[in-house]
């Protein structure tokens, strides 16, 4: 059992534990991947910012009600985003992957995002999805299954400091607007916004495998 499916962990705890994990998408036989550096937790029926607030259910959001580890792929303002359900079937909580640090298949990622380079390649939820080449076909699949998966066979990168803040772009949601449910690797240049000063080690205590 991984932390993703372990019922002892809250969604906020899982969002923090995702930091340093490797998100992988296999495209045309190539492995495109990046280390997760930023996440947001969404707490289901009580969370006014969640797509499942007040037990809302539709074909669009049903993957969030799936078993822990189910990919919920959704589109917003022409951007596609990757979320993962985090609790038992029927609960409706999940984590948004907001940013990754590229690791494998960087040339292929750049080809997927023409005229974008450097930190702009994957420093946002829509950007990373485009770079990885992920589409709506990943909706409802498991984090264990290819082509889109979390590679837990590789050791996580250890984070020097996990920072938190209110989630991005959540206005007019009462206390949930200011709830500190966004987590990120302090000092990492691929964090989407409000990342603070970039550290020389990019916020890691361990280095990616060669």
TrEMBL record:
Alphabetical GO biological process terms: base-excision repair
InterPro entries xref list: Formyl_transferase-like_C_sf, MPG, MPG_sf
Signal peptide extent: none
Keywords: DNA damage, DNA repair, Hydrolase
EC number of this enzyme: 3.2.2.-
Transmembrane segments: none
Pfam families hit by this protein: Pur_DNA_glyco (PF02245)
Alphabetical list of PANTHER family matching this protein: DNA-3-METHYLADENINE GLYCOSYLASE (PTHR10429)
Matching NCBIfam families: 3mg (TIGR00567)
Family the entry assigns: Belongs to the DNA glycosylase MPG family.
UniProt name for this protein: Putative 3-methyladenine DNA glycosylase
Source organism (scientific name): Aerococcus kribbianus
Organismal lineage: Bacteria, Bacillati, Bacillota, Bacilli, Lactobacillales
């Amino acid at each position: 059992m991984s932390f993703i499916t372990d019922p002892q962990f809250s969604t906020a705890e899982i969002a923090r534990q995702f930091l340093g994990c490797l998100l992988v998408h296999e495209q045309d036989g190539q492995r495109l991947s990046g280390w997760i550096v930023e996440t947001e937790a969404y707490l289901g029926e009580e969370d006014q910012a969640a797509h499942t607030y007040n037990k809302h259910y539709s074909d669009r959001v049903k993957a969030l009600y799936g078993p822990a580890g189910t990919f919920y792929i959704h589109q917003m303002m022409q951007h596609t985003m990757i979320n993962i359900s985090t609790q038992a079937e029927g609960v409706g909580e999940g984590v948004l992957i907001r940013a990754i640090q590229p690791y494998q298949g960087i040339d292929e990622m750049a080809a997927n995002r023409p005229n974008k380079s450097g930190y702009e390649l994957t420093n946002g939820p829509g950007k990373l999805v485009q770079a990885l080449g992920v589409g709506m076909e990943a909706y409802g699949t498991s984090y264990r299954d290819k082509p889109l998966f979390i590679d837990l066979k590789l050791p996580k990168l250890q984070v020097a400091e996990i920072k938190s803040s209110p989630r991005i772009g959540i206005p007019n949601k009462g206390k949930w607007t200011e709830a500190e449910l966004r987590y990120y690797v302090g000092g990492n240049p691929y964090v989407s916004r409000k990342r603070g000063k970039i550290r020389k080690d990019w916020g890691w205590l361990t280095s990616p495998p060669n």
